[in-house]
Specification:
By secondary structure, the protein is mainly alpha-helical. It has a domain of 49 residues. Helices cover 22% and strands 0% of the residues. It contains two helices and no strands. The longest helix is centred in the C-terminal third of the chain and has 10 residues. The mean pLDDT is 79.
Length: 88
Amino acid sequence: MPSPPPCASSARTCACTSATAPSWAELLARVFATDVWLCPHCGGRRRLLTASQEPAAIRKVLAAMRLSADAPELAAARSPPGEIGIEF
């Protein structure tokens, strides 16, 4: 089996040369072309303060931010625009 061709991008920006999976920030930058660490107000670099996985702690933080901890109601599925229905 032949080996894959070498990566065309530089080693600094390519996730394929890393022994670990890309971070969520790298994935968001790749997909949405945005730097999640860049503050839109001052242009400074953001930093991660904590990552919580406890539901009670998450609800407390969201309540302090006056955000709902409840999942939004799911919308009903619909046909793509312009389609009335599927004929069999």
